[in-house]
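User: quick one, fold this
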Amino acid sequence: MVALDNNAIFGSVPRLRLSLAPLVSAIALVTIALVLGAILARGFSENGFRLGSQLAWRFTFFVFFAAMMAEPLGRLAARFTGFTWPESLGRKLIWGFCASYGVYLLSVFLPHVIRLSGGATLMVLFGATVALVMALTAAPLKRLGGKVLIGERTRRTMLGTAFIYFWSCYSVMALARISGPHRPDAFYEISLSLMMIALLVRYADHWLRLHRPGQNSQAEAV
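Assistant:
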């Protein structure tokens, strides 16, 4: 559900309001539907699981791109246009990405649960661990009573490291597919271009925060 704040009616700065509660569930359900649809279409064959994991990988890429762009693009839009969206949008997209990536890992793991190679097992376990860290650090970790478990700088460093890991995964995969002996696939060219765009947008946002008038040079980076 999308609506404009009442302030927009009265001529003030418009503020976009989104009903974000179903967003994470919707992202996970779309990923599940893609995997199951591919498996059913191929009759539960190995090719079906392979196609399902490929579709899940590609869908999670676009969710990751949106998660990377949400926070810096929101600040840039507010800075230059006065148009804002909910601060929670970024972390909801991060949680949605982690959920969809978990479905992807499951689609890789299930068809080979008995004969999964050591490298594939390590990839699944490591990817799941990074996704878990990313999900936990998307928002401040608090105990019962409101006490913060880890400092904000530490939290954002861990979150930034998770972002770097997944950005590297998508970028390296795209480079390997573009330069290697594979069939032409426009997805990898598009994905590499979008990763470069996301990097530039985040750099521009960070640079503007560092050089904001009246602010010192200590700015948080994610």
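User: anything notable?
Assistant: The first strand starts at residue 2 and ends at 4.
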